[in-house]
Fold these 2 entries.
Entry 1:
Amino acid sequence: MGAKALGERAGIDYLLIAGAAALWGSVGVFLRWINLPGGEHFVVFIRSMISVGFLAAVIAGSGRMEDFRLGGHPLLLLASGALLTLHWVLFLKALNNLPIGDAEFITYLAPVLVALLAPLVLKERLEKVTLLALALALVGMGLISLTGREMSTGSPAAGTAYALASAVSYALLLFILKFLREDTPALTVTFYQTAVNAAILLPFCAFRDFKVTAEGWASLFVLGLVHTGLAGLVYVFAVRRVKAQHVGIIAYLEPASAMFYGLLFLGESLGWQDLAGGALIIAAGAMVIRRAWSSG
């Protein structure tokens, strides 16, 4: 395969990561529609159960029964599922206790950790384009967080703690995922991670009455099938050939897209800080994608 073809293949994987990140920006909107403060673990449980069913059907329907095997690193795979459970619950709690912009900004300090640690953990060379794109993305997130569009009724102190812990767990997950994808199929990783999510949270959700409206159940179904099952599979599939430091930068498209979803579906207003911040984040993502497409 020539350099041009390799560059195009890598560029497609970068675009898949970007698409997943942009889709995940709508999680905050669905969380508002579910309207279950304090029940974040139930949201994660239901979306995981739906995802497990979807992924099991994909594996069985495609005849890839070998993907039900745990692979060469079973303990690490199961541990990554437990860590993902923690990350999701912490992030949703941050969203319910802070303005969306603030929760996203603190959580997305994770790419800074990834960029700084990738040369040590994964032996990736820290690229100049990474530093420039990371600076643009951080400035962009800072501008977005200044707006403070929607104040939550929760605790700012608790929300900040949740967001910081979510950032650390996000960085750890990315490093573990990069290692697992060296020899473990994407379907296997995604299936067992969400299966572990459901298993861990089952005791906290069984035989309890969570007041969820019809709109809330519809939102849970979309989160489980599209955001967790489908987008999660795409992300895990593509992350193998995308540098960890670049994944973190592209992930900033999630909070950037979140403000536009808030405008479209929640009636939140956008100020000049939002528009300028979003433009900087998009520019940062475009820089690393262009780099991958042209490098080969």
Entry 2:
Amino acid sequence: MYKTIIVVDSDDLLMEGEAFSVISFETYLSDYPKANEPKTRIINLCDTEHYLSRGYYCSLLAEARQHKVLPNVSTINDLRELATTSTAGIALPLPAKLFPIDGGNKTIEMLTFFGWTESEPWKKLARELFEKYPAPILKFCISLDQHGLSLQVGRYAFAQLNPHERELFLARLHKFTDLVWRTPASQKRQRWDMAIMVNAEEKLPPSNKDAIKRFVKAAAKVGIHAETINAMKSTQIPQYDALFIRETTAIDHPTYRLSRKAEQEGLVVIDDSTSILRCCNKVFLHDAFSYNRVPSLKTRVVIGSKESDLDEIETWFSYPMVVKIPEGSFSLGVFKISDRKELQKKLGELLKETALILVQEFLYTDFDWRIGVLNGRPIYACRYHMARNHWQIYNHKASRTSAGGFETLPTFEAPKAVLDAAVKACAIVGNGLYGVDIKQKGHQVYVIEVNDNPSIDHGVEDVYLGDELYMLIMLEFANRLEKRGR
């Protein structure tokens, strides 16, 4: 449970609120931190325009006192830096159609309060600016001239607001503290708060809805209140103690950015950003497997599609062979190549999108092993069979994506060589939750890849362990939270 405190420049700006306390900077400086205080969040409404001002020190002290603060020092510095440049240089969508093109220049200025603004057409931009620069009040200016649109963003002090603007701000402040930073009474019995990141629009999510429900129930049994969020609610991250990502991850993607943000806020995170970086790039995995002698299929990194490149590839591999993009999941970005013409065409296409391509020997098996590993320990084992009349588990070329069957086994029934290879591969990546794909041919095993957010669906991976699978993962969160401390 968090307590929310609003800090203002002086007693002249004090206000009342049911969901928060309001104090002056002098009070915050002299009376805090307090012994045995609950977890505390600070909304800093002091003027932060100048370096080493009261507003600057308010956020700096809050971070030193382990109080969650909005804005934090990094945001204050970012906004100060923007104020010294002619343009913000922010890559955000600007709806040019909202400007009447009449041959003249036009400028729009607007205030945002916790990512909200009065003007309906600019609400999305306001939210995105708040995501990038989380501060209670922002002022943005959009200009249109013969060179196109430009956007400038800056800080704005509570003391500068006129009566109407202050009324709007206070309404949004109450809404923000009630809906975002306030822990409902029914949830206060839990020791920790967890955000489970999901994407309702995702076609192949790592966990189905029934699995998410079981994660939430298991979390409650170990003292964690868990609730789902999506990428649009990333500004709520500071209110939680842990983040569990159940959306397919990628590096240039909100999942990676949210993982980094959560780590910087001190949350316990699975998938951690390092695991996402390492698992989402097959070039890293190939190099790491080779260096650490993890058993894997013969693989080469390719950077060209000229005739000489094809000649060299053909000295390494026979047809068919497999071509992979560095980033991909659920069998996407993996292609079976049957001849030289097809190889040249596919390499040419893919090298327009990425500087490196992986070429790998083709090994057909009736199934792939998937071993779930948590903090270096195998927790489930599945055999995923190939999709019907296809060489992969998923067939994306069908009229609708199809998958093969599966068998879920206790880990002690999986071959020891498979388990050992899975644990060795995960040790290269980290100590999170991973799914290791392994092919087996006779007594020989080959690690294909390590997935940082493996599939855990109700009715598939949990067939053997049932609810115990969800408990194992939530107990790992609870243990890490206990070690982390407050």
